[in-house]
Structures are given as C-alpha cells and as structure tokens.
Specification:
Helices cover 41% and strands 17% of the residues. The protein is globular, with a radius of gyration of 20 Å. The termini are far apart.
Amino acid sequence: LPAFKVPLRPTQMSLCAAGSLRALSQFTHALAKNQNPFSRVGACLGRWAGGEQRGMATNSSTVNTEEIDKFARLAADWWEPGGAFRALHAMNPLRVAFIEEQARIHFGIPDQTNLATLSILDVGCGGGILAEGLAERGARVHGIDASAAGIAAAIEHLKSVPADMRERLRYTQTTTEELVPHVSAPATATRAPAEQYDVVVASEVIEHVARPGLFVRQCAALVRPGGALVVTTLNRTARALLLAVVVAEHVLHLAPPGTHDASKFVTPAELRHHMQRAGLGVPLLEGLAYGLDGRWMRTPDLAVNYMAFAAKPPQE
C-alpha cells in the first residue's frame, strides 16, 4: 500500500499474498456456515502474523495432523460415486493418462505394451483411486498414506478388483519422512535395503503438507536415479480461490467446505524451485480444467489445477 514505505522482498510479498488468500478462504467458509465471517478472517490473519503460516514452520516434519484428521473423517467416502471424492474420480483418467504418457516417453516404453516394467510409489494415496488406475495399466504400485483410515479404505476396496491387479498393489500406513532415512541405508544381515521407485507420484497432496519444499526433497529421494517425480496440485491464484474453493466447495459441492486452504496452494514457480533444489530437472507442466459439462480436460492453462513431471538424472 502507498502508506508503507518499507520495500518488500519477493518472498515477503508471496507470504503477504498467501495470508490474504487464506483470509479470503476463511471468509467464504464462514459465510457458508452462517457464521460471522469477519471474526474468522481476523483470527486467520492473527495466526498468520504470529508465524503459523506454513512457510514459517519451526519443526522438521511435513506432517500436518489437522489435514490427516480431516481426511480420516471422510474415509468412508473414498469409493462412494457421489461422495466427497467424486471430483478426484472424475479427474483420475486424466491423471493416469498424463503419468502414463510421460513415463512412456521418459523410459522408452512402447505403446503396445503395458507399464509392467515400472515400480510406482503413490504418496498420499488415500483410498487408492490413483493407485488402482495405475495398476490397471500394469504398473507395480505401492500406496502410502499417513491416515490409517485411508489405508483401510484402500485395502478394503482391493477385494473388489481382479486378482492379477491385487498382486500389483500394496498399501502401507507411513509417510515419506519415515521412508527417507532408509533410502541410502546399506543392506545388513537383518534388514533389506529400502526401496526406490521408477516413478514417485504425489497427487493433490503437497497443498496439504506442512513444509512443501521438504516434502518434495523427501519424494525426490525416493525416486531411483533416472526415474521421475510427478506432482499434481493447485496454483495459488485468485482464479483458483474462486473456482477451487468458492465454486467447487460452496456452489457445486464437489468437495466438502474446508477441503482446501487457498493460502497453501503452490505456484508453478515455487514447485519448479523445490524440484530443482531437490536435484530434479526442469519439470514439464500441464494444466487441468473443470468444464461446464462436468468433465475435466487437459489444458496449457496452469491458473487453477496443474500437473508436473520432473526427471531425476541417472547416476554417473
């Protein structure tokens, strides 16, 4: 504002914008619940100013227990056609297609063969929507999630899939930071080496973790040399706040109110920075858009939802 003469660095301006977006998100949530929106906005800005903003975290954990608890309460809805995750079900074919296309190009997999040569780690797999889609393509998929309820829903749904697909799918309740210390651990007489994967996927997860930069580094550490990391998320823009929070949660009811906090969305520039800092190449980016006909479509527009594919250099 003109009244302030102290110049702000780009990181400070980014945090100010994030605080404003978060306040707007709280405002819309309060309106939807017939609460006083101004009290929620004031409290939100007070917490942000006090250092609660995700980028100011003082601990070394990426785990956000509030987010884990929130999705645990929705666990019964993972495979309900009209439930809280119906937007993810509708988006899933496009996520799977993007991962498959980029993996075929990167690893040189012929079109006429399936993805049986690939091992994939699905981080934050929830009830297994994406994991099952990738296993259908022939990949060997390991889904992990911090939520016991989400993993239980994924394991329960395995009973309804073909036997050969069940053999390619496994689920574990764990987090990336629990796996990362073991990535480079040498084999011993009592413990096998930890796994790395051809592809690590974190789809619609990074906007729910406590420290996105650390989370990307953990995911990258789980990618084998020559492999790739795939992230799908939401851009931190006014359009994303309007469409992904106000319209999706409060008008179309594609997700429960409070599912997203717009201040936690990650811009493509931020994600690119995190990926390159983690030792990955420049990511290939592609957008996703929700159409008026209720269908998702792939688009060059990155303003709301987008996907990123970044390769890890091979070991010399």
